[in-house]
Design brief:
heterodimer, A: 2 domains, 16 helices, 75% helix, B: alpha+beta, Dna Ligase, domain 1, 2 domains, 5-stranded mixed beta sheet, 20 strands, 30% helix, globular
């Protein structure tokens, strides 16, 4: 297949995944902001949203210091601002542009899902949204990405086009999960003497919610929410679809399928396998022992490296 | 003035036999139902993304071409005659271009004046003496046809470069089958979906390499081109790669595409890119859409371009006026399809006549297209006529003029109900090394405004499904 086609598919699914992730982060922040102020402590949830979304520089340029982020300017910046290259609006815009360039590699159901979402999105204003509007908007975004994913799974041939699309989804998803952990790592540290007041509980629960794993947590651990278990679930648990381990299960699978079809393994396959091995050979205690923050930073950088290897090997 | 010929109700209001079933069906359908179906069709078109861009218009990057749900019907016999004439016309076009870049018998015989060849901006000296596979240049032609009475079809224009619109022919039929299956049970309509197979067979027949299965690709300028939808649509239907210039590269005069498995050789390129942009080394150096070295690979005979380079030398409106003579010269046959009588303003007597009769003529630029830069005399006011008079005097060779034809009309759904609107027809003619293929039908364009004769989509024209009846 054309390298450019593979590239478009890869970025198409990355942007759909990113839009979905941004929607979840905003959803959780909105929920936290409903909590009584006393539970919010001194943490400014909205500035941590900007950090998690990974667009702090652009935000500061437009709205000033990040500590002074407000619900209003963060929502307008991340949801619909046409000037923010990674706003949800622009994620859909870029996803559709990529889709349009590879119409021939998409099934009509996939095109319909992404083009339909893009058409509907134009009905939303460029400005900020009221709380009700935001709720509706976020539901629309999550539904659209579900619909797209569903269309992809139900209708696409299992060939290299599908595997490149899957690769984009999982590189992006791993990056998003890791960034959520990176911004919130301090609340996940096990401090023996800390009792875990209501503030912490909300924080842990919100992390789980942002990857839609609160229910899963209880099924897996049959325990109350504890920070190191949250970290275990999101990093090492292969049963959890948004965990780093699960993303790398899928990544090695898709990359191996590509290598089988082309009859050649390469640096991307080797790097993916070594990252996966690191995730499956450790316990969460080992992770905390080497330092959660260091572990995540290294992961983010490795994941970026994998993206670069995939681009080098296939997409250019 | 004579009554205008309506393809459903003729010249005297008697419903013509081919339209009887459609007419009684239309009578039974309430206007609201038709309007509802029209909206459904529009919704489907938007959803599929069949849009086009109008150059020079802001804020409307993607627009829909209005689709009219009332089909146009052509009888089997009418089509048989048309198809013969089209095949004859395209054969002559191919022989003419081959001659112009070869022996130039046509110039020596004085059939076509030399300056129409050598001073033609579409003439490519690079093609002089260049052999192309099977001496074929125009593999995909779109010949525009208009009708004035039950028996007369005129050729209005030859499109020998990169004619577009075939995706509308195919999609219009799909939509009609979805919206009005009952109408198809009342008529025996010749299918059009064979076009994709025909096109692929034609392209493959032109491969410069024998033996292995040829690798065919469609070359597009990219997603911002007004016809991008059509390019991707065709690639999809043919099952071939849709490439942009940056996907291709030339090594040792062989063209390759960049794939996830490394370079892959390309044999036939159906390019939807104008000559000027094909290769920055050979033509416009600022082109970022083309492929450096493509022209030398082409000249070395390692890749086939469809249509060939330099076909524009045969399809401007000045050369058009010589087509009947060109047909007689190469084929020793009378033209089956007549030309619209054409005044060449480059000739002094013609110019004088044109200047004296501007209010009744249609004046067009020789290299114009898309309905831009033309004067429709009977519809123009005095000021517009004077502007054109000045243009004509300034550069007569740049214009031709034709009498204003009473174009036929077809029933069309408009706000007030079903009313006659003027139409034309663009059939697509495929010339492969083995044979000529023409899918019965083509793209019918319709001027949605009452009385308007301009059917171009850039001027608000719409399209219709075209039914050629089997027997």
């Amino acid at each position: 297949m054309l390298s450019r086609t593979a590239d478009n598919l890869y970025w198409l699914t990355r942007y759909v995944e990113r839009a979905d992730c941004l929607a979840r982060i905003l959803d959780v922040a909105q929920r936290l902001s409903y909590m009584p102020l006393t539970y919010g402590g001194s943490t400014n949830e909205w500035s941590s949203v900007v950090l998690t979304a990974g667009c702090a520089d652009q935000f500061i340029e437009k709205h000033g210091p990040i500590e002074k982020a407000t619900e209003e300017n963060v929502v307008s910046f991340l949801a619909l601002d046409p000037e923010n290259p990674t706003s949800i609006r622009n994620c859909f815009e870029v996803a559709r542009t990529n889709a349009r360039s590879v119409r021939t590699a998409l099934t009509s159901e996939m095109w319909d899902a992404i083009n339909g979402a893009w058409i509907e999105l134009r009905a939303f204003p460029d400005r900020g949204l009221s709380r009700d509007e935001l709720t509706r908007f976020l539901a629309f975004v999550k539904e659209s990405s579900l619909r797209f994913d569903g269309a992809m799974h139900r209708t696409m041939l299992r060939n290299d086009a599908f595997w490149f699309a899957r690769t984009g989804t999982h590189v992006e998803r791993a990056d998003n999960t890791a960034r959520i952990l990176d911004v919130k790592y301090h609340v996940l540290l096990p401090e023996e003497e800390r009792v875990g007041g209501p503030l912490d509980y909300f924080q842990w629960a919100s992390i789980l919610r942002s990857v839609s794993a609160l229910t899963a947590f209880h099924w897996v651990y049959r325990d109350s929410v504890k920070p190191w278990l949250v970290a275990d679930l999101l990093i090492l648990n292969r049963a959890m679809p948004r965990s780093l381990a699960s993303c790398y299960e899928n990544l090695t699978g898709s990359l191996d399928d590509i290598a089988d079809a082309y009859g050649r393994q390469g640096p991307a396959q080797r790097l993916a396998r070594s990252i996966r091995a690191r995730l499956s050979n450790q316990s969460i205690d080992d992770v905390f022992h080497t330092g959660l923050h260091e572990f995540i930073s290294e992961f983010v950088s490795d994941n970026n490296k994998l993206g670069a290897e995939i681009a080098e090997q296939y997409l250019t | 003035m004579r009554r205008i010929f309506d393809e459903m109700s003729g010249e005297d209001g008697t419903i013509r036999p081919a339209y009887e079933a459609l007419q009684s069906w239309l009578e039974k359908m309430p206007h609201e139902v038709l309007e509802q179906r029209r909206k459904e069709a529009e919704f489907i078109f938007r959803r599929i993304g069949i849009t086009f861009a109008v150059y020079g218009e802001q804020n409307s990057q993607e627009r829909l071409i209005p689709f009219d749900i009332v089909p146009r019907i052509i009888t089997h016999d009418e089509w048989t005659g048309l198809a013969k004439g089209l095949e004859q016309r395209v054969k002559a076009l191919n022989l003419y271009i081959n001659d112009v870049y070869g022996k130039r018998d046509v110039l020596r015989a004085g059939i076509v004046p030399e300056e129409l060849v050598f001073q033609n901006p579409a003439f490519r000296p690079e093609m002089n003496g260049q052999r192309v596979p099977h001496d074929l240049y125009v593999h995909i032609a779109g010949i525009d046809i208009v009708r004035t009475d039950p028996n007369t079809f005129y050729v209005l224009e030859d499109n020998a470069r990169t004619p577009s619109g075939v995706s509308y022919m195919l999609e219009n039929r799909e939509i009609m089958l979805r919206l009005f299956p009952e109408l198809f049970s009342l008529h025996k309509v010749a299918p059009v979906d064979k076009y994709a197979d025909d096109l692929l067979a034609t392209l493959r027949s032109l491969s410069p390499r024998g033996g292995s299965e040829p690798n065919v690709a469609i070359l597009t300028p990219g997603i911002y081109n007004s016809a991008y939808y059509e390019h991707s649509f065709l690639a999809d239907k043919l099952g071939v790669d849709l490439v942009e210039g940056r996907d291709l590269f030339v090594k040792d005069n062989v063209v390759f595409m960049r794939t996830t498995e490394g370079p892959k050789r390309v044999d036939v390129i159906y390019r939807r890119l104008d000559d000027d942009f094909l290769d920055p080394l050979a033509f416009r150096p600022d082109s970022v859409l083309g492929v450096p070295g493509l022209m030398s690979a082409y000249q070395a005979g390692n890749v086939t371009l469809t249509n060939a380079v330099g076909t524009g030398v045969a399809d401007d409106k000045a050369v058009y006026s010589y087509m009947p003579d060109i047909i007689r010269f190469y084929l020793s046959e009378e033209p089956i399809l007549p030309n619209v009588p054409t005044y060449r303003c480059r000739e002094p007597e013609h110019l004088k006549y044109v200047l004296d009769h501007l209010p009744e003529l249609v004046v067009k630029e020789v290299h114009g297209s898309g309905g831009y830069g033309m004067l429709v005399g009977p519809k123009a006011d005095k000021a517009q006529i004077e502007v054109f008079r000045a243009k004509l005097k300034h550069d007569p060779a740049n214009f031709i003029a034709q009498p204003t034809l009473a174009l036929s009309t077809c029933p069309t759904l408009v706000e007030e109900g079903v009313a006659p609107r003027h139409v034309d027809l663009r059939p697509f003619i495929l010339s492969g090394s083995d044979k000529v293929r023409i899918v019965p039908g083509g793209l019918t364009r319709v001027a949605m405004k009452e009385g308007s004769l301009v059917v171009n989509s850039s001027q608000g024209g719409g399209t219709k499904d075209t039914w050629v009846l089997d027997t």
